[in-house]
Amino acid sequence: MAAYVAPVVPSTAVFKDGLFDGKVLFCTGGGSGICKAMTEAVMRHGANATIVGRKLDRLTASAAELAKATGRECLPAQADVRDPKQVHDAVAKTIAKFGRIDYVICGAAGNFLAPISGLSENGFKTVVEIDTFGTYNTIKATLPHVRASKGSYIHVSATLHYRGTPYQIHVSAAKAAVDAMSAVLAVEEGPHGVRSNVIAPGAIANTEGASRLMVKNTEYAAPAGRIGDVLDVANATIFLFSGAAAFISGQIIVVDGGYEHVRSSWVPYPQSVLDPASFQASMKPRL
Ligand code: COA
Q: Which of 121, 128, 151, 285 is the most buried (most CB within 10 A)?
């Protein structure tokens, strides 16, 4: 008997037009992948947006593409989230252009596969700086504006740190910290009208994360019958920013088709930790 395969449904087929009319989104990592799809969905429901990233060319092209696809305005703001000043400058540009920030997606992240024995101190620090410090810097720079609009945060995390996932010590530490920060933000800022939640995507097709992290020939069998689509994450985004989620804060929403309940190690275990060199050689095209 063939397994059921969950449909991929665009948010516009479920949520109403104009849901976010007059609102402004600030999204780090919005130039590509999952965060770009999240931004596009929020824009399709009426918001204007700023996308933040390190690569100006990619950012500028993505902003033009998003504006064309949605009929809304998109500002590309180049910044490395590790540098508080650059993030503050991106926020200032957003306020100068749009006058407000309602929604923030903290999505800028770095990842690669490396065992502890093959990861330098600087490699560990680099990922923690991008994911954890980058999220903190983004919260700090945007919070006065999000308070003013009684807005909402979504932090893009992961599921791999729910268990000991080999080759992911740097990202596990960084994402666990992101989850913890979101909860504190929800508790401290809830009385000011601000909500904060985490989306933890599983494997999402055609993203840099999946192409870097998924091991060749790995069987992927989620209860939902397929790998994730960026639209799955976008739909969770629309719901969490919408008024329908007004009573949801400090939560982690896993968007993985139920995969976390059945997943085994992403890398061959224990061979990959006993012999990292030959495993990494087999991964070369993807690393
Ligand atoms: N394995 C082991 N160490 C690695 C590595 C890998 N595949 N890739 C980077 N590092 C280490 C570097 O060796 C360096 O440490 P060192 O100085 O001790 O040699 C450290 O990480 C910093 O690397 P560098 O390339 O200088 O940092 P960066 O700031 O330019 O970029 C990343 C770091 C993580 C962002 C980079 O890997 C990248 O561009 N990734 C693409 C974005 C991404 O990861 N997207 C997926 C999101 S899920």
A: 151
Please list the residues that pair with 171 across neighbouring strands: none
Q: Is the per-residue pLDDT at 217 higher than 60? A: no
Of 59, 119, 126, best ligand 1 pocket probe by most atoms within 8 Å of the beta carbon: 126
Q: Are 168 and 159 in contact (CB under 8 A)?
A: no
User: Radius of gyration of the chain from Cα atoms?
Assistant: 19
- Tally of CA atoms within 13 A in the half-sphere of 213 that contains its CB: 22
**3-class DSSP state of 223:** coil
Evaluate whether 75 touches 94 at the Cβ level (below 8 Å). yes
Per-residue confidence band for 282, with pLDDT thresholds at 50, 70 and 90: confident
Asked if 200 contacts 255 with a C-beta cutoff of 8 angstroms, the reply is yes
Amino acid letter for position 43: M
How big is the CA angle at 24 (ends 23 and 27), to the nearest 5 degrees?
145
pLDDT of residue 32: 96
pTM over 0.85: yes
Which helix (H) or strand (E) segment holds residue 105: the answer is: strand 103-106
Q: Is 43 in the pocket of ligand 1 (CB under 6 A)?
A: no
Note if the bond before 10 is cis, omega within 30 degrees.
no
Average pLDDT of the segment spanning 157-182: 97
112, 130, 157: which to mutate for ligand 1, most atoms within 8 A of CB?
112
Task: Give Cβ neighbours of residue 18 (< 8 Å, ≥ 6 apart).
Answer: 45, 46
Domains in the chain, CATH or no CATH each:
15-258+267-282 (3.40.50.720)
